[in-house]
């Protein structure tokens, strides 16, 4: 494959000080793990969510983080010290993701990189015989999501999507109630992302900081002049790298909307919103309302992003509401739910993950640690069927956000064919299903 070949060509031409040039392996057969076999892991992307990935791996039996990877050496050195201080473990540092992918001693990787790297790194890892835990959103565009599914299938890899609420016993219970008809015929899901997002200003261009390999940070995306408004967090609000809050925090909620309604991609999409608060350099809308219609199933998804002071909806600011003809269920956050029945809203069944968070499990029993436990179990058994967040969820939940963003950017109602995953007679919209990639970082076709 062209992209795999370009990665190998880079490795062959690269020489690490004091060592011989590394040569990428061919596709490695699955390693069979026993209960007592150590799994070697690497965490890629250490500025934010990657710190929870370190915790997630460290909480598992017979799992060892051997490497951490980030294009910013300053962050790597900080995290190396943190891991040594907290866990007493020494980890190797690597700036280049390609060296991690081609290291035969690494069995699994987790990806907490910016969105524009998720799909390419996942596919490269699958090609190299590694299993992957990838943060949400799984993809930066819809075409990438489909290729991730194809790669996981072709190379027979375990790929877990980082929607940890799928590992929450309470959320699983809420889904069972929906399936069992507890609130009647469920016709609508509402996703909420009410998060405080402030003014990021416009810091202009500046020299690349010492220690940051900005070319590697950019990877598959267009390379803009360096600005602090991209690195390290505010890339979320720029289309070339992020997908706005519906494609950030919102993926947990798009995923749960689709899971609860038991639907795939919609056939009609419309979105409206804009920037109403800050005169800053964000490109994405601050406020966004999207509607995803399923006329054949008589179901609909409403999704709303709000960035500033706002009311909660039955206690939820980040969560989901499912509406049936006998009541509704509110899923608040990652690990609890409450139901209300009848016209008088009589409180019904409720649940949460209890005091699990106090015992050291992040965000309840369904938090990051629990989701990593599910991932590692699937890796050991080499059984994708037991994954709580399989790669298909990465494609669908991310894709729903992408569809809403495309409708917003084009400013019109879109008609979509879920079977072909293309728009109906709409070349302009179809062009936004993928992107142009920088040479050497193309997301490959899986054939």
Automatic annotation (TrEMBL):
This is Predicted dehydrogenase. Transmembrane segments: none annotated. It comes from the Bacteria. Pfam families: GFO_IDH_MocA (PF01408), GFO_IDH_MocA_C2 (PF19051). The lineage of its organism: Bacteria, Pseudomonadati, Bacteroidota, Cytophagia, Cytophagales. InterPro entries: Gfo/Idh/MocA-like_OxRdtase_N, Gfo/Idh/MocA_oxidrdct_glycsds, Gfo/Idh/MocA_OxRdtase_bact_C, NAD(P)-bd_dom_sf, TAT_signal. PROSITE patterns: TAT. Gene3D superfamilies: Dihydrodipicolinate Reductase, domain 2, NAD(P)-binding Rossmann-like Domain. Residues 343-352 have a biased composition (Basic and acidic residues). Residues 343-363 are annotated as: Disordered. Residues 206-257, 371-441 form the Gfo/Idh/MocA-like oxidoreductase bacterial type C-terminal domain. One of its GO terms (molecular function) is nucleotide binding. Residues 39-162 form the Gfo/Idh/MocA-like oxidoreductase N-terminal domain. It comes from Algoriphagus zhangzhouensis. PANTHER family: BCDNA.GH03377 (PTHR43818), OXIDOREDUCTASE FAMILY PROTEIN (PTHR43818:SF5).
